[in-house]
Amino acid sequence: MRTAEAHLPWGSTARPPWALEITPERAGWRHAGLRVLTLADGATVTFDTGDEEMLVLPLAGAATVHCDGLRIRLAGRASVFAAVTDFAYVPRDATVTVEGAGRVALPSARAARRLSPRYGAARDVPVELRGAGPASRQVNNFCAPDAFDCDRLVAVEVLTPGGNWSSYPPHKHEEDRVHDGGRQEAALEEIYYFEVAGGRPGDPAGPVGYQRVYGTDRRPIDVLAEVRAGDVVLVPYGYHGPSMAAPGYDLYYLNVLAGPGPVRTMACVDDPRHAWIRGSWAGQPVDPRLPLAGPTTQEA
């Protein structure tokens, strides 16, 4: 896989009612998916989840979700750089209606179990400051395995201050195994959805960031994508990172992960050539610009 196959610019996967639609079939794999709705004021969209569990995650604006007789109001946020948001979980085999105004992401995964729909509060989202120095970033672990219960779906948000690198050192999760050093690795498909501060989806002249994905001799992949707001990069396998925020422009990405394993995990291994970098953080302060965004104060 090369850049032209892995990098999906905003609008290239649109299919009404979705402004962005990536199914497992579209991605060429079996588990992970992502959709984005752009809702005009008061607009309503109804859809069936089929065999996928999903989250309803406001990127900009607010929404109300109807599922299984429940009404879940999401206070949302002005933008991904303004606040940590609340969200809703909707199960497989459900009919869902989303109404509101703004842009809403729906990360998804093929699910075996049908769980109950429920609300995820922004105040309950674990916010982690990871790395140090120019590798500092903020991770909103809203649907990490230890933070929120799903059948297969894992999703987190990462905010990288302008000029910094994240998803670094490069790491992979492409096979279920334990390495010689005892590090556990899991087989996961991953989607990166990007936004760039000051940009808007569909603006070809908007500010940019960069995403690198590369493979091994056994499984080659070679991707270096210049990404703008609304773009996606698919990671079927291989080392991914760094994600590079251009100086002056903070970078956001939503990571959606899912795989065949019976246990939800984000287990990964670093590229051994660059793993030493983690040890260098001990002597460096975290970037003082972090956190970039905290929980919203106007939850439902």
TrEMBL record:
KW Isomerase (keyword) present: yes
Gene Ontology molecular functions: 5-deoxy-D-glucuronate isomerase activity
InterPro entries the UniProt entry points to: Deoxy-glucuronate_isom_IolB (IPR024203), KduI/IolB_isomerase (IPR021120), RmlC-like_jellyroll (IPR014710), RmlC_Cupin_sf (IPR011051)
Catalytic class of the enzyme: isomerase
Sorted UniProt keywords: Isomerase
Domain of life from the UniProt record: Bacteria
EC number: 5.3.1.30
Xref: Pfam families: KduI
Name of the protein: 5-deoxy-glucuronate isomerase
Lineage summary: Bacteria, Bacillati, Actinomycetota, Actinomycetes, Micromonosporales
Gene name linked to the record: iolB
